[in-house]
Amino acid sequence: MFERFTADARQAVTGAQAEARALRDRHIGTEHVLLVLAGAEDATGRVLREHGLAPDDLRARIVRANRAGGDVLDSDALRSIGIDLDAVREATEQSFGEGALDVPAGKSDRFRRGHIPFTPQAKKALELSLRHAIRLGQKEIRSGHLLLGVLHDGGFLSARLATEAGVDVEELRAEVRRLLTAKAA
């Protein structure tokens, strides 16, 4: 599948790994791909910024989401049995200082040099980018197809962060499809 990726799409995938490392995350998620796309100096990046997804704001949202427990499903599962993860973190930081629950430096440094896996959602988004390219009758996977992939499912963290930032995801996806079909013509 990666042989079909254009240079800009490959850069988005490798850039997502670099962003995950820089943010000290233990995974490469759809949010990291979205962050790289938002900072790109191409049509996809411009469209994202025009819709209100600035890289700095998005990076801050990612840090908050991943610091709050990362996977919202874990937070929701704990909440269902009466544990508020945000309240636990807040109380711990009041007692022991900010970042008390973060990974100790030695452990995170070892991890940062090693392999960072893609989340199942990120893998699915990459597969979906191929499906979007095929659906649009295109042989290459461009950064716009990646964007359609990471915004395809409202359950993906990337889509939730975009919605939280006030983006009309359906409108954005429609604009990206128009952009991709205009490029192909």
UniProtKB/TrEMBL annotation:
Molecular-function annotations in GO: ATP binding; peptidase activity
PROSITE patterns, sorted: CLP_R
One Gene Ontology term from the biological process aspect of the record: proteolysis
Residues spanning the membrane: none
Organism, scientific name: Actinomadura coerulea
Entry-linked Pfam families: Clp_N (PF02861)
InterPro entries: Clp_N_dom_sf, Clp_R_N, CLPT1/2
Keyword set includes NAD: no
Residues annotated as domain Clp R: 2-182
Key words of the record: ATP-binding, Hydrolase, Nucleotide-binding, Protease, Repeat
Name of this chain's protein: ATP-dependent Clp protease ATP-binding subunit ClpA
